[in-house]
Amino acid sequence: MKNPTLLILAAGLGSRYGGDKQIDGFGPNGETILEYSVYDAIKAGFDKVVFIVRKEILELTKEIFLPKFGDKIKTEFVIQSLDSLVPGDYYRKERVKPYGTAHALLCAREAIHEPFAVINADDFYGKEALTALSGFLKSSVRPDLHCMVGYAIKNVLSEHGTVSRGVCEYDEEGYLTGMVERTSISRHGNSIMHIEGNEEIEIAPDNPVSMNCWGFHPSVFEQTERLWKAFLEEHRDNLKSEFYIPKVANSLIEEGLAKIKILEGGKTWFGVTYTQDREQVIASLKGLHDEGIYPPSLWEK
């Protein structure tokens, strides 16, 4: 089986953070968060990385990353825009919000023909996660079997506000049975709660959630395209609707088209949702360098 590809979703607007956090420097030498994922992916046996970016940051993204690892791993860039894969009848010029993670995935269809992992640019996942994904994608993935790395909800919160997480439901064998996107999760005293409107739901601290750390067989593109067409029809006049990867995962499971294995490997996570998260991320990365988990400079010759 071919070595897997890493797909990095880097087209977000970073509205709560206040800028393009996917290209902001956090490491001791100004490394972006995604550089650690690429570094870990190379070590784990990935041999291609595909970036999904906005047209506005394409040249800057190339300028930042190609000199650093362009000779270490094959690198491609794909644009996600508000008219990407959107037929004229469904295009709304008033729309500002991107269409979401599953739309981003679908934009990469022509660049990926092998098993692949999907991650966010602004999340640190840890080498264990990339190793687990690589192992599965090299040995176990099939058109009817995909995977995700699960993270305990207690380890993936922000101290500075609510977060959105795909809360997992699963069977005794560790296969995903469903996922609910909860968009307003935070700590309340000793409890972890989703509170939105009149809805209040307590979530167990060790319940796995999706941090958008997936592994797929390329057959997923065909199913995603089918669901994308249905999404556009259903939400043609909703300017804030988003097409999420969990929607695709749930549909595959509900229709009996595929199973999704929840992998262990979600040991370490941190990320930037709010500007206030920045200092903690900087400190966490410095600690990993100080411990020797990463070299003094990721891309030293």
UniProtKB/TrEMBL annotation:
<dbReference type="InterPro" id="IPR029044">
    <property type="entry name" value="Nucleotide-diphossugar_trans"/>
</dbReference>
<protein>
    <submittedName>
        <fullName>NDP-sugar synthase</fullName>
    </submittedName>
</protein>
<dbReference type="Pfam" id="PF00483">
    <property type="entry name" value="NTP_transferase"/>
</dbReference>
<feature type="domain" description="Nucleotidyl transferase">
    <location>
        <begin position="30"/>
        <end position="224"/>
    </location>
</feature>
<dbReference type="InterPro" id="IPR005835">
    <property type="entry name" value="NTP_transferase_dom"/>
</dbReference>
